[in-house]
Design brief:
Two copies of one chain form a homodimer. Chain A has 171 residues and is mostly helical. Chain A has helices spanning 26-47, 52-62, 69-76, 80-92, 114-138, 140-158, and strands at 67-68, 96-100, 108-112. The first copy, chain A, starts with 25 loop residues before the first helix and ends in a 13-residue tail after the last helix.
DNA sequence: GAGAAATGATTAACATGTTAAATTATGGTG
DNA sequence: CACCATAATTTAACATGTTAATCATTTCTC
């Protein structure tokens, strides 16, 4: 690699670009909080051979008989391409089942399998226990309040069309 | 693909696994809120050829003369492997400069280049304007309160050792 | 001071995020 | 009915997330 061992960096360059304190930006706060939460769940999911996203899909499917792929994407908050790949994998592992809507052959319809339900039943207790521990630590009321504020944030931004602020391209 | 066209799914399987309403889980709330926020910034960053993570690194670097790679990872909240790849790319684009700490040849030291500062100066105004718009929409006070609650959540979870809840492996 | 243990960084391997393009199936229109 | 626009899904291509393994250097220890 091109790594100089001397100290010839651009020392003289004026270094200040006026911006908010980086570590306190909203995206960073949200990212750190989410990571702190997920760190609690990942080990258990991993023990059962599941990723966070795969688990989201199983949970979404457990609540219903069957759903179209697009609707599942919306429920699990995954983009189409990610979902496509994950469904391929989950189907190969026989955790879900898939058919085609006879009325519209473009649509795929997905449901959880008996094996998938069995896996869920194995994971759910630990997962619920972790969630309960988090709730206890943070406070149930405070947690509910946080969720409301997050939902409100989503709402606030839902109508913010992009491009409201001008911006040139780079070419 | 193995997609049955008939309707022979596992209809009889008992479908209920007792769990909280999925869409209201804390990780999902945090994910959605963060995505709603990032959706505002991504187009502008993209116009300048930057990803969210690359922008985080430049912002972290703009505040200081130079930092070690590990410290930069902590500041930008990136894992080592991600940071390694991104630094390789940013260095190739001459947006950053890199040397090796003479006192400890294991440590890499990174700083932003003049070109990197120039790019930041081009992106910052739009970025700040978007942030201001978000703040106005959601409310400055409410935003500050949200950040406090997120920080508190991090704090609450910081001492939660994993494995506090038993969990068997799958083999 | 030679060799083991530890540390900083990178690489490897696989899963997902993100945007664009391609595929296949519907539906409308002349 | 041929044609074209649209829609649902997948594939492609590249960037990052995540864990494990590797590599180089340093530090500890005898």
């Amino acid at each position: 690699m091109s790594r100089k061992t001397d100290a010839s960096l651009s020392q003289g360059a004026e270094r200040r670009v006026p911006m908010r304190d980086f570590s306190r930006s909203l995206p960073m706060s949200l990212l750190r909080a989410r990571e702190a939460v997920m760190r609690q769940f990942r080990p258990s999911l991993r023990n059962h051979g599941l990723t966070e996203q795969q688990w989201r899909i199983l949970r979404a499917l457990a609540a219903i008989e069957a759903v179209e792929v697009s609707e599942l994407a919306r429920m699990a908050f995954l983009l189409g391409p990610s979902l496509s790949r994950i469904l391929r994998d989950l189907e190969a592992r026989q955790l879900i089942e898939r058919r085609t809507d006879p009325a519209d052959q473009r649509r795929g319809v997905v449901s959880i399998s008996a094996k998938g339900l069995k896996l869920m039943a194995a994971v759910a207790p630990t997962s619920e226990a972790i969630y309960a521990a988090i709730t206890k630590r943070y406070g149930a009321r405070k947690l509910a309040e946080l969720q409301e504020m997050l939902a409100a944030l989503e709402q606030s931004l839902s109508g913010m069309e992009q491009g409201a602020v001008a911006d040139e391209e780079d070419a």
